[in-house]
Amino acid sequence: MPREKGTKTIAQNKKAFHDYFVEERYEAGISLAGTEVKSIRAGRVNLKDCFCTVEDGQLVVVGMHISPYEQGNIFNRDPLRKRVLLMHKREIMRLYGLVKQDGMSLIPLSLYFKNGKVKVELGLCKGKRRHDKRDAMAERDAKREIDRAMKQRSYRD
């Protein structure tokens, strides 16, 4: 069977955009077991409360929930196990320095297939405060009202 071309989004972490300012974005591969890939293809993954850390020089994602594959019997892995992300050592050390110094976090933003391989989009994020969240909600509501008014106006013309 030929390998798919292009990208296909599997899951997105919408809560991350609510809780953090995304400064930079990175792409990383992820090390998975076969039954985990089958479960991801079925769309049974949750990125809501996960984050990344550096352990023993490796980038690790913690808290990513991949549901066990239904036909997977003994080959299923723990749904919340730590999974190793695949990046160049130099990039990992740079990100580790930024996270330690500036008080930033590495948060998985989305999970997708790229040319048949599972990839993770990481965001170098800075936490939002409560008033920042209120401002973002107010901007979103104002934009929605403007779009609604423009849509009604275009129907009248």
Short description:
With 157 residues, the chain is α+β, with helices and mostly antiparallel strands.
What's the arrangement of secondary structure elements?
Elements: E1 7-12, H1 14-19, E2 20-30, H2 34-41, E3 45-46, E4 51-55, E5 58-62, E6 65-66, E7 83-86, H3 89-102, E8 105-114, E9 117-127, H4 130-156
Antiparallel strand pairs: 1-8, 2-7, 2-9, 3-6, 4-5, 5-7, 8-9
Placed side by side, the strands forming the largest sheet appear as: 1-8-9-2-7-5-4
CATH architecture: Beta Barrel
Helix content: 25-40%
State the helix count: 4
Spatial extent as radius of gyration: 19 Å
Topology-level CATH name: Small Protein B, Chain: A
Distance between the termini: 52 Å
In terms of DSSP E residues, the strand content is: 35-45%
Give the CA-based shape. globular
Mean pLDDT: 85
Question: How would you spell out the order of helices and strands?
Answer: EHEHEEEEEHEEH
Using DSSP, what is the number of strands? 9
Coarse structural class: alpha+beta
Low-confidence residue ranges: none
> Can you tell me the number of structural domains?
1
Largest sheet: 7 strands, antiparallel
CATH class: Mainly Beta
Walkthrough of the structure:
The protein has helices at residues 14-19, 34-41, 89-102, 130-156; strands at 7-12, 20-30, 45-46, 51-55, 58-62, 65-66, 83-86, 105-114, 117-127. The protein has 157 residues and is an alpha+beta fold. Strands 1-8-9-2-7-5-4 form a seven-stranded antiparallel β-sheet. Strands 3-6 form a two-stranded antiparallel ribbon. It is 35% helix and 36% strand. It has four helices and nine strands; from the N terminus they run E-H-E-H-E-E-E-E-E-H-E-E-H.
